[in-house]
Amino acid sequence: MYYLIKNLHVTCVVLSAAGFLLRGTWMLTGNALLQHRLTRLLPHLVDSTLLLSAITLAVMIGQYPFSAGWVTAKVIGLLAYILLGTLALKRGRTRGVRLAAFAGAILVYAWIVSVALSKNVAGYLA
């Protein structure tokens, strides 16, 4: 069961990143598909599944935020990613702010993945 949940989690990680990159590209190019109903709905489904599978895995392996440093780092990174992603796709007032937030979100996302792979709080910064 663990490997099934882990594979679901990793699949959602890839789908979430691909969706964010696509939506970010559409934001930068002014593509109307960014406002499509499916474009607004699918990320919530994927990210909810991603979060649920993450919580399930944490319970299964007994690694929780504030008891396992690398899990705490991922949660803090997730909050930064959400904030930057919101600025990039919705709340950024200028194209420059949106572009900077988009780049920052991608860097944070890559760091979160590196923390998950290395189980090291510094991730690729180590």
Write a compact overview of the structure shown:
79% of the residues lie in helices and 0% in strands. It is mostly helical and 126 residues long. The mean pLDDT is 93.
Compute the average pLDDT.
Answer: 93
Question: Which consecutive residue ranges, at least 5 long each, have pLDDT under 50?
Answer: none
Main sheet attributes: strand count, strand direction, barrel closure = none
Quaternary structure state of the chains depicted: single chain
Instruction: Compute the number of structural domains.
Output: 1
Straight-line N-to-C gap: 32 Å
Q: How many strands in all?
A: 0
- Gyration radius over CA: 15 Å
Helix content: over 70%
User: What characteristic shape results from the CA principal axes?
Assistant: globular
Provide a count of the helices. Answer: 4
The fraction of residues in strands falls at: under 5%
SSE run: HHHH
Helix/strand-derived category reads: mainly alpha
